[in-house]
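Section 5.1 Outputs to date
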Amino acid sequence: MESFYGFLEEFELRDSEEYFIRFDISPSKQLNVILENQRNLIVENDIEAVSSFLLELKLNKSKLKEFSTLSERTVREGQWYRIYLEEEGEVSAIQYQSLDNNEGIQKFISKIEFIDGRTSLGKKISSVISLDKIKDSSEKSITEILNNIKLPSLITVYNVGQGGCNAICDSLGVPLLYFDFGGGIGQNSYTYSNKHKFCFTESPPIILSHWDKDHWVSAEFDNISLDTNWIVPRQKIGVSHLKLARKLFMRGNLYIYPSHLTSIPFNAGMLIKNIGKSINDSGISLISRIKFKNDYFTTLLPGDCKYKNIPYINKMKFNGLIATHHGGHYTRDVKIPLARRSNRIVYSYGLNNTFNHPRNHSIRKHLNAYWNNRLDTTNGNIMLGPKFKTKIPTQPCRNRSCTLQIKQN
């Protein structure tokens, strides 16, 4: 029997009877050494000696009851657990050795123990595996980064499978700023089998909506991305997330969004601090504004955040919308952002993904809110902008230096 500490990253109802669950796990023996030393893991390299893996499983509701610590009422993403794995058993899970490996190893879960954050162990983990040792960045430093980009002409949404990656671009489709830098992982990594080669010609900063891996995993495949500025939310994280944060911090490229600011306006739009409590709902959203004649083409990029947890948007109307959470599940009725007459909605997802995204009821809700003009990333990279009928630009490198050629608008 092997013992692991697991950070709960994903807990989503796939359909009426089955949950999809994802943990970021590390061997208990390795992590215990780190917890005892309690050193600053952002500065020290101790964390590099700790292995981190993905563990994914599907559980129907009846089986979920066998694990009392995963109660539907009390479970929260961002909680820590102790997980015991064996070679045989009844509850099957898949362990992935790396983020680009879609051929996992079958394991069996014998026990899952909740680690209460109020206990000594819980306090140690949440203190050591965290961003607590890094101060919030100043509004000035973030504004300078954002206002350093050129005025944009387009929004692009890239086909990265079951993940999220978008950009504000110039008229040729060259990225000026990335919003999320993700892709399909684990059981969904096959949806992102052809990894993109990204463009950093204009030194675009990267805004991270939240710390779920499917919104930053492309940093594992494109090391150039580590040499640009990242603006990230302060959230609970696991071991693999901390490793990325440390790489960025040691290069001087990690900027923590100031917790006290509800928004940061800049030349091309506005960053918004979401007001929810979960990892999906407590990160950063982006409103992009592209000048066009006497008006603006306005697009909402919410990451995975529920619309109700994004301040300011209730009375706004948008030309473009990236459907939140890949068109995912809603347990309650929601108010969809208001659409302008001329609009486009994009669903970013991977074919045959484990979450069944986009959900039919999500599509219906958006249609009922007059988001009638739909584009899907499964058909290729997408362009949004003031001139819907404009000719799709050819990448200046003609796809020799990157793979970001736009396919549809």
